[in-house]
Write a structure and sequence with these properties.
By secondary structure, this protein is α/β, with parallel strands linked by helices. The protein has 16 helices and 12 strands. It has one domain: Alpha-Beta Barrel (TIM Barrel). The strands form 3 sheets. An 8-stranded parallel beta sheet has the order 4-11-10-9-8-7-6-5. It has a two-stranded antiparallel sheet with strand order 1-12. The termini are far apart.
Length: 388
């Protein structure tokens, strides 16, 4: 087994092991991919303050996210098609998160179903909801999440209309993959992935196929999905979904201070500052650059988490020190899953925790809850100066 010391080590193994269409699905953004790139590069602009002669014994990365105890303030973000990155991907990622002590969020567009994951884990997980035109389906989806004892509903707000991702279109992305000459040629080089996928519980969207009228197999799925994302989603509908769920609600996809205020107004338990990993509005600012203005807007009215661009424990520390209450990782755990299955997800979490712990110590802190702007050097124009 290779020595893994960084998330980048896992990405390189992942790229070699997983079919190109699924690698590209993860490792790409919309349009020019400017926002996708800046989500990570903007973290590099924030520097750390080294402190010395501080007692570094008894350090802890433990914290809470929406009242739930966590080994570190890092949740696994909802990622569609996770079960095509590795056989039974959602189930294995959820189990890895459970054993490590961090939340796992299941995507509406998962391969393994809500029931699959619930049957594979012992602790409640979070469920991410895309709002669809089919309101009956959405209602039943919420009921299924409630029956599975999910402890939070994560409502994604930034995918009413699908952003164009050129690589997915050119690759003919589908689950399972369409067997074109190009796809077959690539799959022939990924035999390890293929053997494992033959034993997978599912190879299609488990939360949709068999649960939607008129969609009984994958051949009918594409047309249904293309027309189902709800462009009429507004704050009134968000409030109704929150009332229908009746439990903790996290609103994901907030990238503007005014939207953050509205999210607090409808009573969200937490918001996720996110641009969908650079996969929706290309040209938007990175999540970490938007975080300060959003924190200024909502103060302590609502928990503020950050998603998009985190590839290390240092990135986690920077987000927390900037004021975030928690963070989400997507690509970082997918690299691990695609590279080594459940062990790879655990490895990704271990890498991030070790980096977080070591960096925290070298910054003179022993408790992740005590991180703050005093640990950082932030450029004066970090948020940008824009014309009114």
């Amino acid at each position: 087994m290779p020595v893994i010391t960084t998330i980048e080590d896992l990405r390189r193994i992942y790229e070699r092991r997983v079919p190109r269409m699924f690698y590209d699905y993860t490792e790409s953004g919309s349009w020019t991919e400017q926002t996708f790139r800046e989500n990570t590069s903007d973290f590099d602009k924030i520097r750390l303050r080294q402190r010395v002669a501080v007692d570094m014994s008894g350090r802890t990365t433990k914290g809470q996210m929406i009242g739930e105890d966590v080994t570190m303030p890092v949740a696994l973000a909802p990622v569609g098609l996770t079960g095509m990155q590795h056989a039974d991907g959602e189930m294995k990622a959820a189990r890895a998160a459970e054993k490590f002590g961090v939340p796992f969020t299941l995507s509406t567009m998962s391969i393994n179903s809500i029931e699959d994951v619930a049957g594979f884990t012992a602790k409640p997980f979070w469920f991410q909801l895309y709002t669809m035109r089919d309101e009956d389906y959405v209602s039943r989806l919420i009921e299924r999440a409630r029956a599975a004892k999910c402890s939070a509903l994560v409502i994604t707000l930034d995918l009413q209309i699908l952003g164009q991702r050129h690589k997915d279109i050119k690759n003919g992305l589908s689950a399972p993959p369409k067997l074109t000459a190009r796809t077959l040629a690539n799959l022939a080089t990924k035999w390890g992935w293929g053997i494992e996928m033959m034993t997978a519980k599912r190879r299609h969207f488990g939360n949709i196929v068999g649960h939607v009228h008129g969609v009984s197999d994958t051949s009918q799925l594409g047309a249904w999905t293309a027309e189902q994302f709800d462009p009429t989603l507004d704050w009134g509908k968000v409030a109704k979904l929150k009332e229908q769920w009746g439990g903790k609600v996290i609103l994901k996809g907030i990238l503007d201070a005014e939207d953050a205020k509205m999210a607090a107004k409808v009573g969200a338990d937490a918001i996720v500052v996110s641009n969908h990993g650079g996969r929706q509005l290309d040209g938007a600012l990175s999540s970490i650059r938007m975080l300060p203005s959003i924190l200024d807007a909502v103060g302590d009215q609502v928990e503020v988490h950050l998603d998009s661009g985190i590839r290390s424990g240092q990135d986690v520390l920077k987000a927390l020190a900037m004021g975030a209450d928690g963070t989400f990782i997507g690509r970082a755990f997918i690299y691990g899953l695609g590279a080594m299955g459940q062990l790879g997800v655990t490895t990704a979490l271990e890498v991030i925790q070790k980096e977080l712990d070591t960096t925290m110590a070298l910054c003179g802190e022993t408790d992740v809850c005590n991180l703050g702007r005093h640990n950082l050097l932030v450029p004066q124009d970090f948020e940008g100066r824009w014309q009114a």
